[in-house]
Amino acid sequence: MTTTLTLRRPDDWHLHLRDGAMLRAVLPETARHFGRAIIMPNLVPPVVTAAQAMAYRERICAALPEGTGFTPLMTLYLTEDTNPEDVAAAHASGLVHAVKLYPAGATTNSASGVSNFDNVRATLERMAGIGLPLCVHGEVTDSDIDIFDREAVFIDRVLDPIRRATPGLRVVMEHITTSDAVEYARAQGDDLGATITTHHLVINRNHILAGGIRPHYYCLPVAKREQHRQALVTAATSGSARFFLGTDSAPHTDANKLLPCGCAGCFTATNTLSILAQVFEEQNALEHLERFTSLNGPGFYRLPANTDTITLEKSAPDYPDHIETDDGPVTVFDPGFALTWKVL
Ligand code: NCD
Ligand code: ZN
After folding, report:
1. Is residue 314 over pLDDT 80?
2. How do residues 153-178 score in pLDDT, each as one tens digit?
3. Which of 13, 16, 23 should be mutated for ligand 1, with most atoms under 8 A from CB?
4. Which atom from ligand 1 is nearest to the alpha carbon of 16?
5. pTM of the model as a whole
6. Which residue intervals of the chain are DSSP H helices?
7. Where are the domains of the chain?
8. Ligand 1: which residue has its CA nearest to atom 9?
9. Which fold has domain 4-343?
10. Beta bridge partners of 174
């Protein structure tokens, strides 16, 4: 039996760090295990310009615990007013590694997102020209589309038309939750990548709704049926270069989760690597874990893999069930099973 596991240091290709007190509390949880992360720009107000991304990057670096080598990879929030030249300059300077597309109203702090795609055409074309990836929150927002169908409908109605209209555009389908997305991603060329979260490898919609409502399992895109979870596990553990880890660790205080209309997001930064090791082990795919956490993402983003390593050992880890922040406690994602891999 394998009892230790050494991986190139992982990266997180989709992370919410927030700002202020929340940033200070959650950043060490990621920096402890991960080398780099793609930082989501959905602050209030959103990170829209290169100058805002630079300032946010400085706030993150100032909040880093002493002696950590963590590097934040910044993104810009695409709006209908985004200036293509500002985006290109931010990319050329090495500051910005992706642009994030939120359909307006799709999720937390997405009100400034895109409604009319004609108004972002010039930016997308510029991005295709310079190879800057577009990270896509892939859900339609139409009230007549069932929330469990919003990802599959987005692929047909929005994603595929955008890609056809913008040849060369490099796209990340983020936090995919359906077999439809897995199949679409598999069928494309290497200008397309897809991230998979930790929690979507573990929970299906029953975890949220059966036997009582569990707000800590509510995130967007919402977890789907078990057959979709299984398709995600198959994709993540396959070793295919198309799929890589983006935790979408999205902290909200318990006070904001446990409301009549609670916030969407699972906080997984703390225990993600222990959970993933177990998911891969159960599939007899531990030899593919490093590709998913540490190699496929840098490959897509055209960055070198990290050169240092982390080691996990087969023993029960000791994670807290919540972390304290000056805004109040944040519950750590509960995978619902006892963890058996510990990060040394
Ligand atoms: C994210 C958040 O809280 O910012 N929530 C979530 O459920 N994933 C937004 C997002 O990535 O959709
Ligand atoms: Zn997210």
Report:
1. yes
2. 999 999 999 999 999 999 999 999 99
3. 16
4. 4
5. 0.97
6. 20-31, 50-63, 84-92, 121-130, 150-154, 160-165, 179-186, 205-209, 226-237, 254-257, 272-282, 289-290, 296-301
7. 4-343
8. 108
9. TIM Barrel (3.20.20)
10. none
